[in-house]
Batch of 2 targets.
Target 1
Amino acid sequence: MALITKPVTGMKDIMPEEMEIRDYCISVIKKTYASFGFQSIETPCVESIQNLTSKSGGDNEKLIFRILKRGEKLRLDEAKSEADLTDEGLRYDLTVPLVRYYSKHQNELQQPFKALQMGNVWRADRPQKGRYRQFMQCDIDIIGEPTNLAEIELILATTTTLGKLGFSGFQIRINERRILKAMAVYSGFPTERFDEVCITLDKMDKIGIDGVKAELLENGFEAGAVEKYVALFTGMEQAQDKLSFLEKELAGSIEEDVIPNLRETIETVEATKQADFAMVFDPTIVRGMSYYTGTIFEIAMPQLGISCGGGGRYDGMVGKFTGTDVPACGFSIGFERIILILMEQGFKVPNRPEKICYLLEKNLPSDRLREAIESAQKARAEGKDVLVVRMNKNKKHQKQQLTDAGYTSFQEFYANPIQ
Amino acid sequence: MALITKPVTGMKDIMPEEMEIRDYCISVIKKTYASFGFQSIETPCVESIQNLTSKSGGDNEKLIFRILKRGEKLRLDEAKSEADLTDEGLRYDLTVPLVRYYSKHQNELQQPFKALQMGNVWRADRPQKGRYRQFMQCDIDIIGEPTNLAEIELILATTTTLGKLGFSGFQIRINERRILKAMAVYSGFPTERFDEVCITLDKMDKIGIDGVKAELLENGFEAGAVEKYVALFTGMEQAQDKLSFLEKELAGSIEEDVIPNLRETIETVEATKQADFAMVFDPTIVRGMSYYTGTIFEIAMPQLGISCGGGGRYDGMVGKFTGTDVPACGFSIGFERIILILMEQGFKVPNRPEKICYLLEKNLPSDRLREAIESAQKARAEGKDVLVVRMNKNKKHQKQQLTDAGYTSFQEFYANPIQ
């Protein structure tokens, strides 16, 4: 039977050149996050369907790769729906597994628990360029820290890592769900339609303030409320300091500590950062996941016009599962996007060992073979990468290809060494 | 809805202590294999069912986690069998994906292609102690090298890696499928029953030569053939050099170069090895997978009474799929077993950065918070791991726990520093 040589739809094989960059990034990420006290953990790629469909995953729950029941559990004749056929599925994110992990192991874990997860997730999305059905996520989370110490450390850890990977001139755009809510309350929008307001606000970078205004009116919101809402944004545009402007305007509509805390987060990060980036308060950041309860943030690469990750505070989620409220905050690097950017920029992994190639004539006698291998072993012990291969008939072509692959010197071994 | 906090049946959560060892081993393995010219690659965890059921996976094909078809492709009402419901599955090994990968990308790859794969595989085995349904495999393979240069480099790379991970006093037991076959031919066993003979021979370490003899007779093999077969093994026991004994006895029953080549492999590795282990010719090594065609080998840890990996030559497999024969040889480290041994031995990752903890009083004013974070950032830049946490009410207990977790020094930050 012929093999299907293509990877399955929407997933990809990773070539050696990309793997080298991926492995390098993984090691920088793990090392840097460890220096902030994050601990690596891993959960199975497979989760129970019940956990994956607990309504914490938003639209991702529609994209689950479901795994068929096995053995006696599979009752094909009686099955009426997908649910009857499947008991497990591939995880679509690392947050649901983290919460399960924390619930199960909290008594064995350091408190607060600072977790680093790097692992594949799967989503049966419509395949499109640069977007795959299997991709790596890279999340750090702090569970059990209620204050902005969590946000500060998460942002510093992530930005320090990005800096070490060579990124500069980027922004961390930050907002607060409670500010979004207070702006809506202040304007007089009905409480039950806050989410709708946010969905429109989220389009600000594409349709502008006029577009937001038009859409809100179109959606039937009261003109007075829309006016007031729009005035907040134009007011911020003109204000010297957006946060101070909001603090004054929203007084009474928001808990007193929200804006000072956010300001402290921004200023502390700015004062202690070790990478070239700017903290930017952006009142239009919304972020999709409904579980966020406080700070929300995104990595923006303005030169590239893209976001490379994000996160926020989700104080309600652990409690929803365990019954006991535990504060939590996380930051996710868009690992695949970072790799894509580095590949496109022709990134070269730094400090690679010297690459040497030994070319062995075919039918080398045992003593000459041993001599070659002995020499290779010695060079390896000295920290060099040594490839030992048989000499091709077209040696010139072979050496050219190896040179293109990064080999900088060659040693040739013949059955009869020239005397 | 309550979360199921247990991982799915047969799979496990990995705790930070184990992850640290795993991450360390992965980095040593990747670095050492790179020094032998192996290139990391990765394939999707999901493969098409057709590839997974191509009869190259032996019994593993019965243990596939199958993935339900999605969208319009799923026709529940018409489905009569598992096959109708599933189009993809989780890979059960890294060999089938490697062959698919090589078939697809061979024109873009270095020749011979030296691949390193570290990745999870899944098998719906009956759960048992120390054996999981998701586990990491760690394979190196050389595709396109017909001579024993492949075996020599595979064995040196694997043993050098094991040595760097602290293993010593182990053995590489090596055999040849063609020797197994020649011994059976020499004895006069019928060709079509060679596999059966091997299945019995494989039990030698458990039932001894008398047990093997009894089982062969019991299975209806001719007494004369069994006598001749048994005499080969007793002869080898008494011989000074097993290979020379076999070379003489089997002359005429085996291709002339098989034993000299095997001897050259053993002697070259012995002469150039950089770890404390012994090469042992073991004529009772069989190895299960039917795709092996030449050399077969295993890592034996006699002190622990277990095997920690193995491999062999499988010259026929690529050709079976692509139509063009390509020689191939691979060696797999039993990664999970290695980790288990290191954990049980209380292995400590060497050269870890110093771990410092900063304890911050609650409600630290902004300037003191900034001071603490600034100092932490400086220490991190100097290569230290710094954990910044809030001070608990029971500070003594907190410090004790952190000391147990490896923190060697503490710095405390108060709202009002003692003057």
Target 2
Amino acid sequence: MLNSYFKKNEALSAPIQLDLNTTLLQLAYNEAGLIPVITQDATNKRILMFAWMNKQAIELTIASKKMTYWSRSRNKLWIKGETSGHVQTLKSMAFDCDGDAILCEVDQTGSACHTGREHCFYLDIDLDKKQVNVPPSPL
Amino acid sequence: MLNSYFKKNEALSAPIQLDLNTTLLQLAYNEAGLIPVITQDATNKRILMFAWMNKQAIELTIASKKMTYWSRSRNKLWIKGETSGHVQTLKSMAFDCDGDAILCEVDQTGSACHTGREHCFYLDIDLDKKQVNVPPSPL
């Protein structure tokens, strides 16, 4: 599971810079060529959604600054907001220590969730009552 | 990909409550029985790490309030901080709209990353220079 490309950067006495294209080749894509992506609101730091990208989607997102995912249900590239207008403008992107996940901060236009809710993580667990609270939809 | 259990809660005119145990059975675990978990600092909202849980890990996390993941490299349950002392105390948990990801807010003791850095997403991309900036390790 551990990739030596990332392993060698764990202990550093001074900052270094890696080439982006070389790093993209080293990410821990799964057997379908996909890597998990966490999308966070750059302003209020809320987690908006969780999705997947392939290498091309990462490259298109960086080039266009428009969040572009791989839709596993439609099996194709998916520019977020292409039909709804609820685009996400990329503000920052980071990889984690072992190169198996991506964190993107974005400016969100409209609602992030296709249900009309502001974010996708609306199924909130009441840890004491062992219940899942689901809020009404604004649509 | 869409699960009718979650689909039917997309459009709601009033809030509802779901049974937690029933919902846990409906989550979109992958072929290895795992679901992605995003761990966020409950105080400063920083994304600390990304990992995986199976159903048992979710149940243990809820029961103990100590974040318990499934280690894919060691192929076993992994109580975060069990050896390092850098435990994560669960403050809130939520599922996303289609039940294929979990968001947990935690109180982090010590550093979240095994490299000693405060969080795992320290490989920061310079979108203009097409470089990845890696900060030094505190260890």
